Amino acid sequence: MEERLILESIERYIRGEMLPEERKFFDELRKSNPGIDQMVVEHTVFLNLMEKYGDRKNIKSTLQNVHNELFESGQIKQTNETRVVRLWLKYRKVVAVAATIAGVTALTISSLTSYYAPRTSINRLEDLSRSISILAKGQKQINERLKNTEPIKVPVEADFKLGGTGFMIDPRGYIVTNAHVISKSTVFIVQNSKGQEFTAKIFYISPTADLAFLKIVDSEFKAMPAIPYSISRSNIALGEAIFTLGYPRDEIVYGEGYLSAKTGFGGDTLACQISVAANPGNSGGPVLDKNGEVIGVLSNRQIHSQGAVFAIRSRSIFMALNEMKSDSSLATLHLPQNSLVKKLDREKQVEKIQDYIYLVKSY
Questions:
Q1: Residue pair 166/284 in contact by the 8 Å Cβ criterion
Q2: First-to-last C-alpha distance (Å) of the chain
Q3: Are 170 and 333 in contact (CB under 8 A)?
Q4: What pLDDT shows up at residue 291?
Q5: Across the strands, what pairs with 130?
Q6: N or C terminus of the chain with fewer C-beta within 10 Å?
Q7: Phi, psi at residue 314, to the nearest 5°?
């Protein structure tokens, strides 16, 4: 849109001259376009100031007209000190105070307009981890237990700091999730779909890919059977169907959608965009194609843009594995190579996969 047309539309918007459909469209435009929103705010302030300036000009013009009429009728004489001047001299302090109040009012209106105007976050991405308050009464007890060298389970009375989803990539207890799910935490508990909890520790973190690898180190954990899904190395087609499993709630939740863009936010080639329902707690969950192959790790969503959800491409998992190989003590993971649920219907796929998806609690 040309700037002139934009300004005309903004004036109609501010003056309430738009039809309901036009106004609804313009409200959405303000939310999605920070530049337009800022122009609306600035123009509103400008019109307010112009209106006040016009009021002052009208008052001065009215006073001048009254003075001319009185002079022409002979009721006053043109002297060095007319009645108007005398009034000015008498009440100039009051006028000065009024002018000051008007100036302060204008500045206040401007500040309030800027404060209450819809804003678009500078960081327009929202991590999909679950933030949960920490119980103060459990803090001291946790700190005391953290002094032990052996991993411990968080006491029942303590709430966790962040929650997300993870999925197993090695049946011996290796789980992948987002790095932001476990950031600034020291104790990790993973919970399976049956409600069983296991203590885990950080095995490896890849900050550039926003991926973290956890290892279950709980004596109660037994190695799982072969993982039913595989980790894909190839790309999927635009519009191809996908589904997710994760923990936006305390029980596992299924979602389905499709690949809506081959790149992520801002053209990020390490990510892709999917159209699927995603909420806090879905971070770190697997994005799977129709064959039961993991094609991505659900990570974040775009603020003020419904349905714009992003996932880290699965190839980043392999990139992280290559990073691990530089440390021989970490090069022990064996990712599943073949999907065992490829020819099953969706209900059977979910039934077999869900046992390998974990709620990740970090404290």
A1: yes
A2: 50
A3: yes
A4: 95
A5: 163
A6: N
A7: -65, -25
What letter represents residue 22's amino acid? E
- CA-derived radius of gyration, the chain: 32
User: For strand 174-178 and strand 125-127, is the pairing parallel, antiparallel, or unpaired?
Assistant: unpaired
DSSP tag of 129 = P
Work out the pLDDT band at 297, boundaries 50, 70, 90: very high
Q: In the beta sheet, which residues pair with residue 101?
A: none
Dihedral sign from CA coordinates of 298, 304, 308, 310: negative
Size of the chain in residues: 363
- Distance (Å, whole) CA 214 – CA 169: 10
Q: Are 76 and 70 in contact (CB under 8 A)?
A: yes
pLDDT value of residue 26: 76
Q: Which two tokens stand for residue 193?
A: 């779909």
Instruction: Looking at the chain, list the stretches that DSSP marks H as alpha helix, in order from N- to C-terminal side.
Output: 3-14, 20-32, 34-72, 83-116, 136-145, 179-182, 315-324, 346-353
Q: What are phi and psi of 38, to 5 degrees?
A: -65, -40
| Amino acid letter, 222 | K
d(CA 345, CA 96): 81
Which pLDDT tens digit goes with each residue over 255-279? 999 999 888 887 888 899 998 888 8
How far apart, in whole angstroms, are the C-alpha atoms of residue 116 and residue 73?
A: 53
What's the mean per-residue pLDDT of the chain?
77
Strand 293-302 versus strand 230-231 pairing type:
parallel
